[in-house]
Design a protein that fits this description.
The protein is mainly α. Helices cover about 60% and strands about 0% of the residues. It has a two-stranded antiparallel ribbon with strand order 1-2.
């Protein structure tokens, strides 16, 4: 089964590497075009995206050239030997924890809006019916995204258990999702466009789902490295969802004024442009120059 899957795994690794290279070129072009007009948060996100592309390229090369370098994915090897994957594990953990605990870290408003200190009520009283309608629409979109992601995960899981690829490629798929996570934030997001239909990242219903979606492929590898990442992401997801149920007013611009465009300091959606949708779900794109005001 392992030999049968090797040609497919090698092809998949090379395909993902080429895809990552294409993404890197696109990122460079966008960064060069915007230049000094970027907000500080958007610059940080572009640098983070560039870093993730480098991590992806290294993982893809290792999958093709030295798949034996992924020994930490076997059994309890996480505690028996040190490898470059331990550094990656620390980076991922350090990135997730500030999204769970209200530490004074510089995380984007789209992620931090669940914390009480980022809530600023408007002058008008909150209309509970409007808030209820808003949450119902957002939850329908989130449920659809969750169902589609579970279907994709099922395809990945079946392919893995049939021996079409091994653990290194499964990790590479997670790293590919790791890159796509920031592409959705700074360049283009299919979840925003087709499912959630939120105006911008700051108002995104599933902003903190990112790491959960990134690490779901690791569920199929039973060891400390993979499951510690996956279940930390699950805690992050549960923290987000419980807060949303208990304090929905923190997630709606109609009740939390810091989510309005005029109060936004992050401006990470500059390239995509803020969007509004009519009752039929047709998109109306706001002019990008309005975001500069």
């Amino acid at each position: 089964g392992d030999r049968k899957g090797r040609p497919y795994a090698s092809f998949l690794a090379r395909f993902l590497l080429q895809s990552g290279g294409g993404c890197g070129i696109v990122i460079t072009v966008y960064f060069w075009k915007e230049g000094p007009g970027m907000s500080e948060m958007r610059k940080r996100y572009f640098w983070k995206l560039a870093g993730r592309c480098v991590v992806f390229a290294l993982c893809a090369v290792a999958c093709v050239v030295a798949p034996e370098g992924f020994g930490v994915l076997e059994g309890m090897n996480f505690f028996r030997e040190f490898s470059w994957l331990h550094v990656l594990w620390l980076v991922w953990m350090a990135d997730m924890l500030p999204q769970i605990l209200p530490w004074p870290s510089r995380i984007p408003l789209g992620s931090a809006k669940l914390f009480a200190h980022r809530f600023r009520p408007g002058k008008c009283e909150i209309d509970p019916q409007l808030l209820k309608r808003f949450m119902a629409r957002e939850n329908r979109g989130a449920a659809l995204v969750f169902a589609i992601w579970c279907a994709l995960l099922a395809v990945i899981g079946v392919s893995y258990h049939r021996g079409l690829f091994g653990k290194p490629v499964l990790l590479l798929i997670s790293v590919f999702f790791y890159v796509c996570d920031l592409i959705c934030v700074v360049i283009w997001c299919p979840f925003q466009r087709f499912f959630i239909k939120n105006r911008c990242c700051v108002n995104c219903r599933i902003f903190n789902w990112g790491y959960f979606m990134v690490f779901t492929p690791m569920l199929f590898i039973r060891n400390f490295f993979t499951w510690s990442l996956f279940f930390t992401a699950v805690v992050l997801l549960i923290r987000w969802e419980i807060t949303l149920v208990r304090y929905p007013e923190r997630f709606w611009e109609g009740s939390n004024k810091v989510l309005k465009c005029e109060n936004c300091q992050d401006k990470i959606c500059k390239q995509k442009g803020a969007k509004i949708f009519d009752e039929q779900g047709h998109i109306i794109k706001l002019k990008k120059k309005e975001l500069k005001k």
